[in-house]
């Protein structure tokens, strides 16, 4: 929508690292095992020495399945902590390099539970999910044994009360100190609300052999739209963890998603861009990106969009699909012509324009080396023919 | 027609801002009956001949208001919607994109309790063709006709309306319900209104990946709908876990997949178009 340009906050979903999530949870009263971040094996050793106990070394990367990939290891001595940290730091987990590890006191586990908060779109409320089956992927539990997950939809105005938390603990059959477990759940919701999370999860929520309750692992994803309220958290964004083109596009205020094909896609309106991707796929092509220039875009916006899309070395051709409403097709044409005149258009460009100022746009583009087609489907077929279909 | 017509008296919240002024002009040109505007701190001004008040309460004390359209920036947008609901405005159209989700969770529930209907956020609004436009869509592509449209998208809706208009079929009322994860009104809330509207002969439902509103709509259609419905799903080729422009257009785990939506439509006997042109063909076929 047109308000977006002026008011769009971040476009990325902001995933926090485990140690950052735990810091937040601790602030709201969730007990977490003592831990510190290390960037070098020496630091890991020093932290282990300081704790003077068995520690766990955990890779801090924004992907799931760290454990299976060898990114989580126990160390009994500081020397061992040094060795384990050396093995994990620099490790590649699903395409991401491990740059830091969390060194935390190991916990003696008696029970492992799951507690998570997420938005239930259909119910339009935040739902608490609680399960005795913790320490494993909750989506697996949901698929295998959905009855093992107990749900409670939280009244946004009343919040989550201790008695409701106690009832949930009983309902889910968690064993351990009832009041402490309930306090953790209440604190988890307060944290979720307090930082404007979209996901907050403790997995596993551990009852230790000596009866303590701690969040042994935690995950928080923040709501981008609310980051303006949390400038301290907005700073936690790690640009290197994002695709550089997504970073650049976001600086221009574009909604951009990098995809794995070779046809650059530019359109106005998220729905139209999604439709354009679908069409290109249908006729055998593979889009290289999703890029929405938004509503009411002027020539310079289109020029910048072309700049971002053509910076992608995967792109072998570009398809610009415009339905002029508030956006004027002639403004789009002017942006394309500027890019052309500056020698930016090194790859074939296919366009389909309709709607407001369609005729003016066509006149402007007459005789220019831009391939114009009257319908989206014809333009999709043309660009696929030019760059070659699915490789 | 549903929800709005040429008699609907409209309040514009955020009327003095750039977007608010621009679209107020567009709506006035379309013939929309705009009776007042609100911008806190700008009470007493006039914008395009429309009197501006500091609060919605003052505006409704001086004017009969049937609907409000909101162009207030995201941080204050949910509060603006609540202000309208508390002042008793029965229909609230929230255009703003980028509203914090928890603000919407709270506002949607409270507005419902107060008895107002909220459309959006992150939506293009409502248009009853050749009657009134309470939104930001290009009015000229909507020719008066037979088809009601409910959509999670903006531009794609304009495309569909233009194609239906060019084919001589035309539209009755088009409602853009918004692209956010939590919206005030969903497909299944509006289908009963089209079902009872004598002018609407068929409904086009433009959905997209993410959430389960299409599935809920399909279930309702299967049990209750007396008129033909044609479906469309955007983002069918989108990868999982990626947000496709709209905050709500994201497949999470097994929720929000195109397969699930297509299956639900198939079970409800709703034909699904793959292209905009096919929407027109399927509507023609349904109308016989």
Automatic annotation (TrEMBL), chain A:
The keyword Zinc does not apply. Binds 1 Mg(2+) ion per subunit. Succinyl-CoA synthetase functions in the citric acid cycle (TCA), coupling the hydrolysis of succinyl-CoA to the synthesis of either ATP or GTP and thus represents the only step of substrate-level phosphorylation in the TCA. The beta subunit provides nucleotide specificity of the enzyme and binds the substrate succinate, while the binding sites for coenzyme A and phosphate are found in the alpha subunit. Mg(2+) binds at residues 203, 217. GO terms for molecular function: succinate-CoA ligase (ADP-forming) activity. It is an enzyme of class 6 (ligase). Pfam families: ATP-grasp_2 (PF08442), Ligase_CoA (PF00549). Heterotetramer of two alpha and two beta subunits. This is Succinate--CoA ligase [ADP-forming] subunit beta. Substrate binds at residues 268, 325-327. HAMAP family: Succ_CoA_beta. It comes from the Bacteria. PROSITE patterns: ATP_GRASP, SUCCINYL_COA_LIG_3. Residues 22-231 form the ATP-grasp domain. SUPFAM superfamilies: Glutathione synthetase ATP-binding domain-like, Succinyl-CoA synthetase domains. Its EC number is 6.2.1.5. Its cofactor is Mg(2+). Pathway: Carbohydrate metabolism; tricarboxylic acid cycle; succinate from succinyl-CoA (ligase route): step 1/1.
Automatic annotation (TrEMBL), chain B:
Pathway: Carbohydrate metabolism; tricarboxylic acid cycle; succinate from succinyl-CoA (ligase route): step 1/1. GO terms for molecular function: succinate-CoA ligase (ADP-forming) activity. It catalyses: succinate + ATP + CoA = succinyl-CoA + ADP + phosphate; GTP + succinate + CoA = succinyl-CoA + GDP + phosphate. Residues 3-99 form the CoA-binding domain. It comes from the Bacteria. CoA binds at residues 16-19, 42, 95-97. The active site is at 246 (tele-phosphohistidine intermediate). Keywords: Ligase, Nucleotide-binding, Tricarboxylic acid cycle. It holds the Pfam family CoA_binding. Substrate binds at residue 158. Its EC number is 6.2.1.5. HAMAP family: Succ_CoA_alpha (MF_01988). Heterotetramer of two alpha and two beta subunits. Belongs to the succinate/malate CoA ligase alpha subunit family. Succinyl-CoA synthetase functions in the citric acid cycle (TCA), coupling the hydrolysis of succinyl-CoA to the synthesis of either ATP or GTP and thus represents the only step of substrate-level phosphorylation in the TCA. The alpha subunit of the enzyme binds the substrates coenzyme A and phosphate, while succinate binding and nucleotide specificity is provided by the beta subunit. This is Succinate--CoA ligase [ADP-forming] subunit alpha. It comes from Thermus composti.
